[in-house]
Design brief:
Elements lengths: L8 H7 L5 H11 L15 E4 L2 E3 L4 E5 L3 H13 L3 E5 L2 H9 L6 E5 L7 H13 L7 E5 L8 H5 L2 E6 L4 H12 L2
Parallel strand pairs: 3-4, 3-5, 5-6, 6-7
Antiparallel strand pairs: 1-2
Helix pairs in contact: 4-5
Length: 181
């Protein structure tokens, strides 16, 4: 028997390697079994390098979307990655949270919402930044056809634009990129 045999698909899945790593993390989180990824405290997530050494960083993320299914999905996936997530169901609710003193590392914003849409929220955030208020960078999620690659959202202050329906691996990758500057 060859002791250097390639690990089975099941072993790769359990260890969090391969194309099903995100699925594995979600399943273990939903079952409460975190033993398959980083010990009893949950999966260990690393971001960036400090002096050549990987550093652990948990982000505070505000998700702003009027669709509860999307809020729940993003909350679950981002929490499995080790982040703290707060939900707002429209732009006004998000603005109230930010104006109330809550701080976030990243804000993920839908564009089409009732009460206050995402573009208006981005402009309000941009105004507050201009007056010296520190507000997290925003990632925009939209199901709309992007004109000029989302230039109007970038002009309003978004740092990235993601098309819906969300590719969860892409969301995680973009969150990491924005967090690492």
């Amino acid at each position: 028997m060859n002791s250097f045999a390639e690990p089975s698909r099941r072993e790769k899945f359990r260890e969090g390697r391969g194309p099903n790593a995100l699925t594995r993390r979600i399943l273990f989180a939903a079952s409460g079994d975190f033993s398959g990824g980083g010990g009893a405290g949950g999966p260990e997530i690393t971001y960036g390098k400090l002096g050549g050494k990987q550093t652990k960083k948990h982000l505070n993320i505000l998700v702003v979307d009027d669709e509860r299914d999307i809020n729940g999905m993003l909350k679950l996936v981002l929490e499995v990655e080790g982040h703290r997530v707060r939900i707002a169901e429209n732009g006004q609710q998000a603005l109230d949270i930010v104006d109330g003193g809550a701080t976030f590392d990243i804000i993920i914003v839908d564009i089409r919402m009732p009460v206050m849409n995402g573009l208006t929220l981005l402009n309000e955030i941009k105004t507050r930044r201009n007056y010296g208020m520190e507000i997290a960078p925003a990632i925009v999620g939209t199901g709309e056809e992007l004109v000029d690659g989302g230039a109007e959202f970038i002009a309003a202050g978004a740092v990235r634009v993601i098309r819906k329906p969300y590719d969860l691996d892409q969301v995680i990758r973009i969150v990491e990129e924005v967090a690492n500057g």
